[in-house]
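FW: tagging you since you asked about this chain on Friday. Here's the raw sequence from the shared folder, copied in full. Didn't touch anything.
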Amino acid sequence: MDRREFVKTTAASTVFSALPLLSALGKTTKYRTALVGTGWWGMNILREAMQAGESKVVALCDVDRNYLLPASEEVTKLNGDKPKLYGDYRELLAKRSRRL
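HL: got it, structure written out here
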């Protein structure tokens, strides 16, 4: 086997062995996400998580409904999730074990 034939064979086998890995990379896991604090900083982080396509927003929590309600509307508008709303993070954490 000469060098050129070796390189062609090796390159072809590398491509075919990488195909399962590439198809696995296309699959994304949706992480169930709950946000505590829907102000400016929290929503910026949540927007990035939603944009990555790996988050399903299941709950939002904020003591101030003036932040909570617009945040919920934005989440629904951006990716269709309808998160449960909480005014107290302790209530949200208590529900955690029951799968929000």
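FW: The beta strands are 31-36, 55-61, 84-86.
HL: agreed, and The chain is about 60% helix and 15% strand.
FW: great, closing this out.
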